Amino acid sequence: MPVAETTAGERPPIIAIDGLAKRYASGQDALKRIDLTIREGEIFALLGPNGAGKTTLISIICGIVNPSEGRITVVGHDIKRDYRAARAAIGLVPQELTTDAFESVWATVSFSRGLFGKAPNPTHIEKVLRDLSLWDKRDARIITLSGGMKRRVLIAKALAHEPRILFLDEPTAGVDVQLRQEMWAMVRELRRAGTTIILTTHYIEEAEEMADRIGVIRKGEIILVEEKAELMRKLGRKQLILSLAEPLTEIPDSLAAYGLDRSSDGATLTYTYDTQGQRTGITRLLADLSEAGLRYRDLQTRQSSLEDIFVGLLKERA
């Protein structure tokens, strides 16, 4: 997937990655020829199991780790030749809760702004703290905050210098459900304000809830990049679940072609079909059930989730 070229009137990607690879001295390939473009203003979710290369990829884009080969531009700036300009466009929220424990919230967020050469702007810092429900904690020392509040401080630090791009590396790891929902709402608000969000997560529901596009990385390779809605349309499956009037000890031979799954108690049959097929086979199945003398009390359908799709992709590429 080469870095996309733009045509007249089309906005260039805010991040363009071409042929990126990372090889350690041990010979391990952490990343293998990554080609990827990120559009301005989108929420892009990068999914993958632990050790797939998500954090390594982010670390290289942010200038924390050096690549072995390849080229990256951020807002048109090459991250090697014009590091300062590229890095100034990026806010990074790392996985680890690393903060200045004995500083106040206000001091540490304000200091982060100064690190990028930005003039003091108390109005902006106040807005960031209010947006993150940290205003009441502005004078509190970070060591006194809960884990969830510390994570909010990390986000505030990343936003202090008004970046155009925000990287969230496993932002809700270890936080409770309520805080996760609040953070999702905050991310949507940032996107509405024009910030581009790149999110790495192993919470499938996080990507399903928020992302515009989804990339799947496995063993250092991007195996798929797709619009979320299109991914679910193309790879989604539906299941027809039949609750039988009487339990079934075995599936009749006449129904073998349908690949039905029988529940352990024999009370239900599940038929999986492709939503993109010209014919689902449901009408024929119901007729054949009747011919086999099987009656059902109820039927319902279930659409496959993004988690089903993700697990299936990893199995397929194993």
Automatic annotation (TrEMBL):
Q: Which UniProt keywords apply?
A: ATP-binding, Nucleotide-binding, Transport
Task: Extract the InterPro entries matched here.
Answer: AAA+_ATPase, ABC_transporter-like_ATP-bd, ABC_transporter-like_CS, ABC_transporter_ATP-binding, P-loop_NTPase, YD
User: Taking every annotated instance into account, which residue ranges of this chain make up the domain ABC transporter?
Assistant: 15-244
Q: Which CDD domains match?
A: ABC_DR_subfamily_A
MF GO annotations: ATP binding; ATP hydrolysis activity
Which is one Pfam family of this protein?
Answer: ABC_tran
The record, for SMART domains, names: AAA
NCBIfam families given for it? YD_repeat_2x
Member of which family? Belongs to the ABC transporter superfamily.
PANTHER family per UniProt: ABC TRANSPORTER ATP-BINDING PROTEIN
Name recorded for this polypeptide = Multidrug ABC transporter ATP-binding protein
Please give the organism.
Aureimonas endophytica
